[in-house]
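Backbone geometry:
***
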Amino acid sequence: MTKEPSAAKNIFESKRALMDEQVYQENIEFWEKAWGMVARPYKQLPQLSYVPRIPDELKQRRVGSVLDLGCGSGWLSIYLAQHGFQVTGVDVSAQAINLGKIWAEEDKIDVNFDVMDIANLDYGEGVFDGVVANSIFEHFPMDLALPMAESVLSMLKPGGTFLGCFDNVGGGPGEYYTLADGTHVYTDKGRKGMLLRRYSNEELEQLFAGFASLLVEEVDAGSRFVIAIKSI
C-alpha cells in the first residue's frame, strides 16, 4: 500500500528528529571510538553456523550486486566478494571503512567501501540485487529501524533479497538505561553510548511487512536468520 504524502513526511521528520537526538549521536561516537582503537583488520571469519549459508542463499536467488549494511572492517563484504558477488560495504565509522580498504587492497579483492550512516542511506531506488545485515539492526531503536527497513526495500531491485541475522541480545551484564521501546543505552565506560535491543519475531514481521515473503529461522544461541524477498 502506498503511503500518503503527509504520512511519508511525518516519518521523515520523525526519523530526522531521532537522528538529531543526543542519544543517537553518542551511539555514532561510540562506534568511531571503538574502531579508532583498531589498527589492523582482523582477517578471520566469525565461527557462526549460518555464515556459509549467506552466499549460498544469495546464489540460489541469482543475486549479483550486494549492499553490506554496517560492514565494520569488512569481513562479510570480503567474504561475499570472494564468492563472486559485486559488493558495496557501508559503515558510519571512517576507521572501520579504512580497515576494510586496507584488507581489500592487501588481498587484492574488489570491494567498494563507503562511509555513510546506514540510517540515512542515499543509493537510490532499485540499485542492488541483495542487501545483507549481520547483527546491525540491533543497534537502532524501533523508530529508526522501521524507516531503515523501508530504505532496504526501496534500494532492492524487484525480486531482490534481504538476508540478516538478528542476535539474541540485550539481557547481558552492563550499565544502561532503557528507552521507551526497550532499547538499551549503555553508560558503562567500555560501551558508553552504544544502543542495543532485541527484536521479537513480531517486531521482525513489522520491519519487513512491505516484503512479499519473510522467513525467520532460529540459529546460533537464539539468534534469528531472516530472509525477506521483495515482490517482482
